[in-house]
C-alpha cells in the first residue's frame, strides 16, 4: 500500500488506546482501508490471544460480581446504547460498573471502554480499572497495590511494577474521557488487574499524561491522513495483515529496517541512513542516538544482507560445548498457564540411535498434573546425568534460548514443591548455573551475525534441518494445544500427535545445529573480515 492515499474525513476518524502503541503506518492503513482489512483472515496467534484475554476477563467478572456490592453490568446491543447505560450508572452513583463504554468524543476523535469503573471512595468521581492477560508486577518491592475488593492503595514490599506502557497509556486515555464528561476522580489514578489477579496495581497517571497527549495527537493526525507514513519493519509486523503489502516495498527500496528494525531504524534515519547499502558502507563512530544492541553487528548484518549470505562468522574458529552424553530439551507452554510438555532427545557418542521422549500432561492447563509430568522429566534428566557420571562420561543438556526453559523450571519447582520428584528451587539453580546446561542460542549469538534473525526456525535450515510440519511454529502450536486438550470442543487426539512431532523436531533441530557448528560451519559460512576485504 502506498502511503499517499485518500485521507479519511476528519469527522469519521476515531481512535482508541490501542492505536497509541501500534505501528503508525498500520494505523493509517487500518483507517483508510478498513474495508480491505475486513476481508483478511485474522492471524491465528492474534485470535488465540484475544480469546484467552476474553476468558480471563470473564473469570474476573464472575469472581468480583459475586463479592462486590453496588455492582452494575453494562449489557447492550451496540456501543451507543452501552455508553448511555454507562453514563446513567455513573450519574446514579454506582460503585462498580463492569464493561463500561464511554461516550464517543467526535471532535477530539476519542473512543474507549474500560473493563471496570470504580467510584472513588475518597474523592468521588470514577477510577478506570483494566483487566489484562499479562503480568503487571514482578517479585520485588515498591509497587503500589490494593486488594481486588477494596480501594486502599499502599506500597507493597513484595512486588515491583513490571513496565507496561500500553497499560498506562490506556488508563490515561480513559482518564481523559472521564474528565471530558466531568466524571474523573481527582486522584488521577488508574488500576490494572493482571494475569493471576492477585491484586490491583495502582498507577498514578499524572507522570504519563503529557506523553499520552503527544502520542494521541500524533496518532490522530496519522489516522486522518495529515501526517505521511511509510512502511518500516517492527516486531508487530509478524502478526500484521498488511505485512504482505509492506515487505515487498521494503525489499524493493532495500530499507534499513530489514536489518535494523524498530527504534534502531529510526536512529539511523535521523543520521541520513535509509538503505541497507548506506548502513553497510558506514564509516566512523557509532551514532550517539543508537538505542540498543551492537551497532557494529547492525553494520555487519547489512553487509551480509547485501552479499546475500544468511550468516556471518565473527571469528575464525567456531566452538560449541560437547559431551559424551547429550540431551536436547525443548519445553512447550500455553500462555502463562503452565508448561505441558518437556521434550528430550538422548544421544550418546558411540551409542545407539538418538531416542526422543516427551513428558506430557494432556489435562487442560492449569492442572496439578503438570507437576507430575515435570517431576517425571526432572527425575529422568537427573538420572541420565548421574548415570553418565557413574560411567565416567561427560554430560550436557542443551536448549535453544534458555529464558523460557529457565522460567518454567524455576516456576515449576515453586508451584509443585509438594509433589514427589519435584526438585527444590536450589537444585534447579545448581543445574542451570552449571556448564552442563548449554544454550545453543547463546552460542549462535556469540559466534554469528544473523541478518534474518536468530530464531531456531531461521538458523536450523541453514544447517540442513527442515520441520516435518509446514505450519510448525509457536503461535500455531497454541491453537493445536487448545484442540488437543479440548478447551473448546472434544479433545482432538491427532493434534496431540502433531504437538509431539513438532516438539521432537525442535530438539532434533537443536542437535543438528550443534553438530553443524562443530563440523561444517567454518567451511560453509564466511567471516565478517572476508566480506570487508576488497574483491
Compact summary:
By secondary structure, the protein is of the alpha+beta class. The chain folds into three domains: 44-216, no CATH class; 235-312, no CATH class; 325-524, Nucleotidyltransferase, domain 5 (2-Layer Sandwich).
List the helices and strands and how they pair.
Layout (H helix, E strand, L loop, with lengths): L23 H9 L1 H4 L6 H22 L5 E3 L5 H13 L4 E10 L4 E10 L6 E6 L5 E3 L3 E4 L7 E3 L2 E3 L3 H16 L8 E5 L6 E5 L4 H15 L19 H11 L9 H8 L5 H5 L14 H13 L4 E2 L11 E10 L3 E11 L6 E6 L8 H22 L4 E5 L2 H14 L9 H8 L4 E3 H8 E2 L6 H4 L14 H12 L7 H27 L1 H4 L3 H5 L3
Parallel strand pairs: 1-2, 4-9, 12-15, 15-16
Antiparallel strand pairs: 2-3, 3-4, 5-8, 6-7, 6-10, 9-10, 11-17, 12-13, 13-14
Describe this structure in words.
The chain is globular, with a radius of gyration of 26 Å. It has 535 residues and is α+β, with helices and mostly antiparallel strands. The strands form four sheets. An eight-stranded mixed sheet has the order 1-2-3-4-9-10-6-7, sandwiched between helices. It has three domains: 44-216, no CATH class; 235-312, no CATH class; 325-524, 2-Layer Sandwich (Nucleotidyltransferase, domain 5), CATH 3.30.420. The chain has helices at residues 24-32, 34-37, 44-65, 79-91, 165-180, 209-223, 243-253, 263-270, 276-280, 295-307, 369-390, 402-415, 425-432, 440-447, 456-459, 474-485, 493-519, 521-524, 528-532, and strands spanning 71-73, 96-105, 110-119, 126-131, 137-139, 143-146, 154-156, 159-161, 189-193, 200-204, 312-313, 325-334, 338-348, 355-360, 395-399, 437-439, 448-449. Mean pLDDT is 92; it is low at 1-5. It is built from 19 helices and 17 strands. 41% of the residues lie in helices and 17% in strands.
